[in-house]
Amino acid sequence: MSNGQLLLLALLLPFAGSALAAFLPTHARNAAAFMAGAIAVVGCVLIVLMYGSAERSEPVRLVLEWLPMLGINVSLRLDGLAWLFALLIFGIGALVALYARYYMSAEDPVPRFFSFLLAFMGAMLGVVLSGNLVQLVFFWELTSLFSFLLIGYWHHTAAARDGARMALTVTGAGGLCLLVGVLLIGRIVGSYELDEVLNAGGLIRSSPLYVPVVVLVLLGAFTKSAQFPFHFWLPHAMAAPTPVSAYLHSATMVKAGIFLMTRLWPVLAGTDTWFYLVVPAGLVTLLLGAYAAIFQQDLKGLLAYSTISHLGLITLLLGLGSPLSAVAAIFHTVNHAIFKASLFMAAGIIDHETGTRDLRKLSGLFRYMPITGTLAMVAAASMAGIPLLNGFLSKEMFFAEAVENHTGSLLDDSLPYWATLAGIFSVTYSLRFIIGVFFGPPATDLPRKPHEPPHWMRFPVELLVLICLLIGVVPSFTVGPLLANAARAVIGPDLPYYSLAIWHGVTWALVMSIIAMIGGVLLFLGLRAYLDSGVEGPPLVRELKGQRIFERILVVISWQLARTLERAFGSKRLQPQLRIVVVVALAAAISPLWLRGMVSEGTLPLTAFDPAFALLWAIGAGCAIAAAWQAKFHRFAALVLLGGAGLVSSITFAWLSAPDLALTQLLVEIVTTVLLLLGLRWLPKRIEEPYPTSPPPSVLLRRYTDLAIAVTVGIGIAVISYAVMTRPLGESVSRYFVERAYIGGGGTNVVNVILVDFRGFDTLGEVVVLCLVGLTVYALLRRFRPAPESVGAPEQQRLQDEFDEAAPDRSPGDTVADYLRIPRLVMQWLFPVIATFAVYLFMRGHDLPGGGFAAGITLSIAFIVQYMAAGTRWVEDHLRVLPLRWMGLGLLIASATGAGSWWFGYPFLTTHVRYLDWPIVGKFPVASALMFDLGIFAVVVGATLLMLVALAHQSLRRTRSSRTAEGE
Amino acid sequence: MEMVLAIGIGVFAGSGVWLLLRPRTYQVIIGLSLLSYAVNLFIFSMGRLKIGAPPILSVPGVGDPATMADPTPQALVLTAIVIGFAMTALFLVLLLAARGLTGTDHVNGRED
Fold first, then answer.
1. Facing residue for B75 by CB, picked from A676, A682, A754
2. Nearest C-alpha in B relative to A655
3. Which of A400, A614, B35, B74 has the fewest Cβ atoms surrounding its Cβ within 10 A?
4. Given an 8 Å threshold on Cβ–Cβ distance, is B8 in contact with A575?
5. Is residue A148 within a helix (H) or strand (E), and if so which, with residue range?
6. CB-based contact (8 Å) between A786 and chain B?
7. pLDDT digits (tens, 9 = 90+) for B29-86
8. Is the dihedral of CA A438, A443, A448, A451 positive or negative?
């Protein structure tokens, strides 16, 4: 396997493991933990194997084309920086898996935990290995999602739910900002590939979009890495199981933001904008986090705030913009990951073995757990920056960088003082952690009797602390080359001079370290009485809670704003809503006229005026207005008038060179009328006039308003259509259709060729909609409850039955049977005629007006005419119509014809044409489009019949139900 | 002709909108149908008016768009007519069901 494939394997392994773990039995704790650990170890090995390649200046790459036209590919890229992060993700991941095996209770659904953990590992790996920025954002959002699941793992507790939601909201929103930022970068550079973006630093920095890009990318990074003012989600995320905290808040989740800033450091950093955005945020986070950490009573809370503070430190270093500070930032990222993971694990052990992590209860644990205590002390010393430990080295580099001059501004000049202050704070909270937990009198009211944990639970801590020591004592033999590699990936092949030695002689940095240590001890001693009093939260800034502001904003947006909008625009009544829709549409249509002035008549010569056409439209307009007037009380009249209007529009189509439309409109008109007639049976007549004398003013006002709206709409549409019709038609896609219809589509009826060939996919979608409507109508009518007034026999039927009963020689039903006997016979005989006509329409459709739609409706008319002539029961006894099968078969034919072109290596729905000489019929085109049209034909027949028959059936159902009611 | 058709479209649309804003469901269904006639004719008229020039190639081969009716709006309207029928059917059944369930044919679902 090539290195690229190995890389892909390393990325896919955690996801595969996650899917697998999800299917393990609920209590398979050992299996799940073993699998997670094994995957992490294998990943580690894979990454280590690729060290040789990543060491060279050329990164390992793998590009799989995905959306090449949009510049979006699956692109993996492993350089020194990605290598270092990948090693941390897998390495600490393996230790966390081992630790979690012992930490998680057997009662919890542990496989789910490992499933989330592995998925998170994969997502995080995706972020660091992405060679494409869009892909990076994708994995970035995945980390947000999986961290949400991990933090909310104990979802029965409110704290876990709230913490998870807060983390997701904050980091997810930041991710969206990042996405926009990345899209802007892609716009500037012309590519999302990391290689090209990294080579286009000058272009990006000189672009007018540079400031928005920096702001958006930083919003993403700051939310993820818990920088002020977005830091508040991190302490709440402590509701997660401790292994999650150890993983997310040391090496992964929060380091994603740091990674992003480091990754884009070569292209974004080094400007004043960058400096003044990043440095203050980092500095405030550093100080605030360290200050707040001192006053926490919860062990994990203390570590959480210290994490925030260290993230601030790294951000600050990245903000300085000098190559040396970037090296220090990477170095501190690694060191922090190692000592913070071990500290979280130690805190978890303490919690696990004593039952509490409240600093007010914990005391004097050293005598019970000396080994854990020693390990925690070493790790905490590293956090405080004590010599011979890794934390000391990177902190020294930070101090040295703080002293360096970068921009010469007041902020820059004051950095050494702030840095020293932060150093003092970190010594203080480290001391608090150690002395508070391990020294002092033995604790009295612990929930459990404390003792050392199982050895394998402590093993990850031991290993991490060993690494702390190794890096701290012999840095150049351990972390040196890795760091140089990572740094080269960020700042280029020529590294600035730096020394990883412990002793540099007496420098400012050393002096600052000594001041920090002494100051920290003094501060701790000074605060001891205050801290022991057990007050929660830091003084002075206790009231400054980001969380409260966050919740306030959430309430305003998701509740108050929604309520206000609902009150303003919402209604349970349809009528006012429809009015709003119409008015908004009207306003949208009028606004261009308002802004650009009124349209005038165009220059196109008018078609010759024909009085007959004017007469036709006089009738049409009369029908429409009369229908509008009569629809309330005279429904049948309105239906007839509607039919008149439909006929006028059908004749208009025929007049104006659209035979296909005229035909289809006429046929649809017939079906619609039948349908509405069937419906009228179930609409009880409206008799009562609500306002016998004259309507109240409010009703009158509403009517006049509606009338004004309707008239405005009418005039507006008339004006716009006249303005368009009198202007010459520009060049459009029609030329292509007309020129290619015969050559490419093999038909002379261009409209039909468009429907079944050029835009066949749209037509396929349309017939699917038709099927869905048919099925919906069918489903709705199966549980149909008619209005109670309409359940009884209709008036005409009652009169006929009375007449039949009164006459001695007649029985009920005779009148109906005799009614229109001759026309009914003719209608029955017409069935083959209409059916043949349908076939004729279908066959000629490709060359002359007709086609699948028209033919389908014609055939369904043939059927429905039988229903009307002979009655539902007679038809169903003699003729088995299976609309559902017609529909299914039609969809199958249409899709299969489309898919058939795949067989020959063409895209979906490619048409093949051939002219065949058929006996008798003559020369006849056989296009695959004809098969497609056949499918459409069948669907139209099926769907139309399904609707009509379902409605016609209601008359039968009623008889049956009333029969059962009357019968027994 | 253009003027006649434009006025006709306007009348159809105006009547349709008036009915759309009425309280009874049956009025709304008639209004929607009228409105779809108007919209179909409006879209159709975007291809400009031509008399005696259907979009059918008289001689097999390459057609000349200048001498034929514009096929694109016609293809759009053809599908719109069929979908319009489906919409009417669906709305009719909803109307009937609502009439049975709410006991009223007011669009708001209750008399007021």
1. A754
2. B51
3. A614
4. no
5. helix A133-151
6. yes
7. 999 999 999 999 999 998 888 888 888 887 767 777 778 888 999 999 998 998 999 9
8. positive
Element (H, E) at A922: strand A922-925
Measure A282 CA to nearest chain B CA, in Å. 57
How close is the nearest chain B Cα to the Cα of A794, in Å? 16
Sign (positive or negative) of CA dihedral A482, A485, A490, A493: positive
Q: Which residue in chain B is spatially nearest to A703 when comparing CA positions?
A: B22
A639 at interface of B, judged by CB pairs closer than 8 A: yes
Q: What is the pLDDT of residues A517-566, one digit of tens each?
A: 999 999 988 888 888 777 776 776 665 666 777 888 888 888 888 888 88
CB atoms within 10 A of CB A821: 9
ipTM: 0.96
Summarised one tens digit per residue, pLDDT across range A622-678 is 999 999 988 888 889 999 999 999 999 999 999 998 999 999 999 999 999 999 998
pLDDT in tens, A846-895: 788 888 899 999 999 999 888 888 888 888 888 888 889 999 999 999 88
Mean pLDDT of chain A: 86
On chain B, the residues whose CB falls within 8 A of the CB of A755 are: 75, 78-79
Closest CB to B75 among A604, A679, A759? A759
What are the structural domain ranges in chain A? Answer: 132-537, 571-686+698-730, 737-968
What pLDDT, on the 0 to 100 scale, is given for residue B88?
93
Q: Answer with the residue of higher pLDDT: A710 or A783.
A: A710
Name which of B73, B66, B91 is nearest A578 in CA terms. Answer: B91
> d(Cα A191, Cα A131) in Å, to the nearest integer?
11
Domain residue ranges in chain B: 2-49+70-102
Please indicate whether, in this complex, the C-beta atoms of A717 and B10 are within 8 angstroms of each other. Answer: yes
Residue type at A911? T
Per-residue pLDDT tens for A228-277?
A: 888 888 888 888 899 999 999 888 889 999 999 999 999 998 888 999 99
- Å from B3 to nearest chain A CA? 6
Residue A634: both structure tokens together: 């005279």
CATH of B2-49+70-102, one of 2.40.330, 1.10.287, 1.10.20, 3.30.70: 1.10.287
| pLDDT higher than 60, residue A605 | yes
Distance CA B95, CA B78 (A): 26
pLDDT band for position A344 (cuts 50, 70, 90):
very high
Nearest in space to A443 (alpha carbons), one of A347, A376, A367: A367
Alpha carbon distances (Å) from A691 to A229, A635, A696, A697, B46? 64, 19, 8, 11, 44
CA distance A222 to A147: 16
Q: Which of A655, A732, A784 sits opposite B97 (nearest CB)?
A: A784
Range 570-629 of A in CB contact (< 8 A) with B = 572-575, 578-579, 582, 604, 606-610, 613-614, 617, 620-621, 624-625, 627-628
Closest to B71 (Cα-Cα) out of A738, A744, A930: A738
CA distance A784 to chain B (A): 6
